[in-house]
């Protein structure tokens, strides 16, 4: 059961969304513009197939037809120009890298033997760091990314996070890299299974977790 305290934290963590009727740099959300409960840290599992882009509010790049499970909900057209969003060159591989991180949080190293292209990795963390580095070569080095990933995984495993921390490790990592979310609009993952995400705001109270 979601406690009242957690509900208040989730509401306070929402970014400021500006609705718009014009422009092309928009994302479409159907529902109440709340953070997806199943994307939060305590509800995320490395064994899941989707949701690894992180904790937050999910969007589509195009409007849905009215009716159906999602299309019948209230439509919100949000201005994306206000956010710094990461656009992976290969969204599916990028999602796999973030899934590895969630698996490692749960001590699941089942993907350790997978390879990316012709690269053989020394560890699952090395694989995740390499993919993040390939997708964002102007950011931190591969070694620096390994340290950031390892740091966030250890915070989870060693219980160093506050009880009110709702963000998953991939969310915190991407925010450490300076991003407000992930943008996959116009790609094969621009759908209701994956979608683009905008993360919760980072308050002064949990800056030490970034």
Walk me through the structure:
This protein has 210 residues and is an alpha+beta fold. The protein has one domain (4-209). It is 30% helix and 10% strand. The chain has a four-stranded mixed beta sheet with strand order 2-6-5-4, covered by helices on one side. Strands 1-3 form a two-stranded antiparallel sheet. It is globular and about 50 Å long.
- Beta-strand percentage range: 5-15%
Shape label: globular
Structural domain tally: 1
Tell me roughly what share of residues is in helical segments.
25-40%
Radius of gyration: 17 Å
- Which sequence of strands runs across the widest sheet? 2-6-5-4
Tally of extended strands?
A: 6
Stretches where pLDDT is under 50 for at least 5 consecutive residues are 1-12, 204-210
Distance between the termini: 27 Å
Pairing-aware structural class of the strands and helices?
Answer: alpha+beta
Tally of individual helices: 6
Major β-sheet annotation: 4 strands, mixed
- Mean residue pLDDT: 84
Order of helices and strands: HEEHEEHHHHEE
């Amino acid at each position: 059961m979601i406690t009242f305290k957690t509900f208040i934290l989730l509401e306070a963590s929402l970014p400021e969304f500006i609705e718009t009727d014009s422009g092309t740099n928009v994302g479409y959300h159907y529902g109440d513009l709340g953070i997806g409960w199943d994307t939060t840290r305590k509800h995320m599992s490395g064994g899941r197939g989707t949701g690894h882009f992180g904790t937050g509010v999910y969007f589509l790049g195009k409007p849905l037809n009215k009716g159906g499970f999602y299309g019948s909900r209230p439509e919100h057209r949000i201005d994306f120009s206000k956010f710094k969003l990461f656009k992976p060159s290969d969204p599916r591989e990028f999602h796999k890298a973030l899934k590895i991180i969630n698996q490692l949080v749960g001590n699941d190293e089942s993907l350790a033997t997978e390879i990316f292209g012709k690269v053989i990795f020394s560890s699952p963390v090395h694989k995740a760091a390499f993919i993040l580095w390939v997708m964002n070569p102007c950011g931190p080095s591969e070694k620096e990314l390994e340290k950031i990933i390892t740091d966030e995984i250890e915070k989870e495993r060693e219980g160093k996070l506050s009880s009110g921390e709702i963000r998953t490790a991939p969310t915190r990592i991407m925010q450490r890299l300076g991003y407000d979310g992930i943008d996959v609009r116009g790609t094969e993952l621009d759908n209701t299974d994956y979608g683009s995400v905008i993360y919760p705001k980072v308050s002064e109270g949990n800056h030490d977790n970034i």
